[in-house]
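Checklist before submission:
- one chain only
- standard amino acids only
- sequence pasted in full

Submission:
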Amino acid sequence: MAGPPPKPWPTGEAQQLEPLVRRVLAPNPSPYTYTGTQSYVVGIGGGCAVVDPGPDDPEHLLALDAAIGDEHVCAIMCTHTHRDHSPAARPLAARTGAPIVGCAPLVLDDSGPRADASFDRTYEPDRVLADGEAMTGPGWTLRAVATPGHVSNHLCFALEESGALFTGDHVMGWSTSVVVPPDGDMADYMASLEKLYAREDRVYYPAHGEAIEKPRQMVRGMIGHRRQRENQILRHLQEGPLEAKDFVPRMYKGLDARLHGAAKMSVTAHLIDLERRGLVQRSGEVWQTKPSTQTP
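Returned file contents:
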């Protein structure tokens, strides 16, 4: 997990990434959001869409207003409903009259450690996009790519005119995603990575971190990383039963203590996946390999 780059960060600035895409960084940096959530304005001249409007922060909303300028906002599009991604949708819709389009609503109690990323209970979309459905505007098409795993309602959006993919939190430019059960699901997350690996997107624009210029290489590395973590878990369990928290100091050496809870939840997501596949079992909080999987 990389640390943030040196300040100053371009918070509040509209950065032109390509002819159809501008990026605006929200003022919400944290150990879980890196330098903050990145909102994207897609389209120029005639109408635009705002992807992941971010937190309901007055400073960020003013920055989005400046980035949008006099353009008509055709849609406000959310990849998922964590509180650092979707809460600005409602006030931005009130300002612009634009519909909220994208992921389905999801209201759950977040059992994980991410107070900044618990579920947004105010999110009310005007239109939910299923996998493969699109929102169009003047000179742009954003097609939904269902990518559950980080959360069950996660979507990516493919900008068909340029080959860019807005990846939300599914693929980030600075760290792997946290998968927090019960809504986060490791098997779904891995399947979604495989789905992206089969695509031919030119570049990824994540909600956190820099643009990813070699998408398939990045995804291949993420799949390998998760398989490595899975193998680590099984090796440690060969030595004896463990609780999920016991894996963290063994597997995440040097990790910022503030991130230990997130690491524990990702380990738990792996353990649940391994349990479903019949490789491990649990008794209360204690996990162990099944007798048939233990080495003699």
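Reviewer check: The longest strand covers residues 140-146.
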